[in-house]
Write a structure and sequence with these properties.
505 residues; alpha/beta; Nucleotidyltransferase, domain 5; six-stranded mixed beta sheet; 3 domains; 17 helices; 35% helix; 19 strands; Rossmann fold; elongated
Length: 505
């Protein structure tokens, strides 16, 4: 490319002149508030130095933060102290080649003036000036001693592990370079969990934003602050400023999200992690007064979830099936152990699962092996399709997200059942950086049927609707088999006949 010296201190001019389209190939131009923020954030002194080592740009969801991060990373790569090393750091829950790198590659693809001097490789960008941009994971161990000019941190609220904190410390700005900065784009996190971002937030914002804020206001209209001692610049906005952030868009988001999630994502405000999971109104909208539990039949595939305990807690089994493009609760059972008398899993949960397997067409049973290890082995030996589903953080998060999405979208149907309803309403939702998981507020408020239901739903969604043929009546089975070789003869129940036929297939 031609000499880029004129852009060394002016990212706005670089973007105006060299970036015509965004990562999707659409026409692009900075908005007025973005221009003002970038001019404040990258105000070089007479010696070409920035007053900041950390630049944080925080706005509500869908405000173009990732695109802005990628644009600034490109500007830095093309103009600052080449050859240079730049790192794009993925948070704890992304792949190394995260969103910023994909956005950066899209910008190059759609802006040929820049693309001619860049080569995009797998997780790495090479420029003709010798600068490299590398995407790394949060557990990356090779960052110590690097001579980087910029590190990019997207959605810093999700950097919650000890290894991500260590990487933040390893990638401290390099003092021997004229400028070496951390560039952060994010929205708000969770009180008590997103500690890395929380500390930076308090260090940067002013007291008008937070009583403990240590920064000074830098703009009369925009929420821009700076802390010269900590060398931290922070733009922390709560207002939607993009043309696509319309009232209609937010109406839909309010319906789709829990209140705390909406506040954090779309108002960019810190929230506590524990909220009401499912309201009575939301669950009752999924209940059909005319429904009843499904009687034994081999016509439909069932998916079961089992949450077992022997004392101090209840045990529960819940079954669901596909009903068109929705799921329907078909049966449930809850056992309450008596004080001082542990629950006999073999006589209760195991026996019930055996009966369900005999009377219905059970596709899969999910359960945590913690209390059910022996039962899993016994039921597997009896032909029940058991699958261990440990209550790890990823699994419980998947369970919570699955159940919430189904209920909130009215894609789960249920018969009236006060016991099941009580367990659902006893749940609280714990917001984590992985997503929402369900938990109990106190030990006396039982949620085991909700846990079992969520596992059953996970299994059903993973398998999808079955296209296997169904033989609805005994006469159809007898017509098909016509006493083939191995037929055990008459006297079998319909369920046993169907199981025999399926086994031959």
């Amino acid at each position: 490319m031609d000499d880029l010296a004129c852009y060394v201190r002016d990212p706005v001019a670089f973007i105006d002149d060299l970036v015509e389209r965004n990562e999707l190939g659409q026409l692009f131009a900075l908005l007025a508030h973005q221009r003002e923020i970038l001019r404040l954030a990258f105000a070089f002194d007479a010696e070409g130095r920035l007053p900041w080592e950390t630049v944080i740009l925080s706005q509500p969801k869908k405000s173009g933060k990732t695109t802005l991060n990628a644009l600034l990373t490109l500007w830095w790569a093309f103009t600052q102290e080449a050859p240079n090393d730049l790192y794009l750091v993925a948070n704890d829950y992304e792949q190394a080649a995260g969103r910023v790198f994909r956005t950066l590659a899209g910008l190059l693809r759609h802006n040929p003036h820049l693309a001619t001097s860049a080569e995009v490789q797998a997780g790495r960008l090479l420029l003709s000036n010798g600068t490299t941009v590398t995407a790394i994971a949060s557990e990356y161990a090779g960052a110590a001693g690097s001579n980087h000019g910029l590190t990019s941190w997207d959605e810093l609220w999700g950097y919650v592990s000890e290894r991500s904190h260590r990487l933040w410390e390893e990638l401290t700005p390099v003092a021997t370079r004229t400028n070496s900065i951390r560039l952060v784009t994010t929205y708000a996190g969770f009180e008590g969990e997103s500690k890395l971002l929380r500390d930076l937030y308090l260090r940067g914002v002013g007291a008008e934003e937070h009583p403990e804020g240590q920064g000074a206001r830098l703009h009369p209209a925009l929420p821009v602050y700076g802390n010269a001692e900590a060398r931290t610049f922070i733009y922390w906005d709560h207002e939607p400023r993009m043309p696509w952030q319309t009232a209609r868009y937010y109406e839909g988001q309010r319906r789709a999200l829990r209140a705390a999630s909406f506040i954090r994502l779309h108002e960019n405000r810190w929230t506590v992690s524990e909220t009401v999971f499912i309201t009575p109104e939301l669950w009752d909208s999924c209940v059909d007064a005319d429904r009843t539990p499904l009687l034994p039949t081999k016509e439909h595939e069932l998916f079961l979830g089992v949450d077992a305990a022997t004392k101090n807690d209840t045990a529960a089994v819940v079954g669901v099936r596909w009903e068109g493009d929705k799921l329907a609760v078909t049966l449930h059972r809850i056992w309450q152990p008596r004080p001082g008398e542990p629950l006999d899993l073999e006589a209760t949960v195991e026996a019930f699962v055996r009966d369900v397997h005999a009377g219905y067409r059970v596709r899969e049973v999910l359960t945590d092996p913690f209390q059910m290890a022996r039962s899993i082995a016994t039921l597997k030996a009896a032909g029940v399709p058991m699958r261990e589903f440990p209550q790890t953080v990823p699994n419980t998060t998947l369970m919570g997200a699955t159940l919430w999405d189904l209920v909130n979208g009215r894609n789960l149907r249920c018969y009236p059942a006060e016991s099941l309803r009580t367990h659902l309403l006893n749940c609280v939702g714990i917001e984590t950086s992985r997503g929402m998981r369900i938990a109990k507020e106190k030990s006396s408020r039982k949620i085991d049927a909700a846990v079992a239901l969520s596992m059953a739903c996970v299994s059903a969604l993973e398998h999808g609707r079955s296209e296997a043929p169904v033989l609805p009546v005994p006469g159809a089975v007898e017509t098909v088999i016509r006493d083939p070789e191995g037929w055990p003869g008459g006297g079998l129940s319909y369920a046993e006949t169907y199981d025999w036929l399926i086994g031959r297939r």
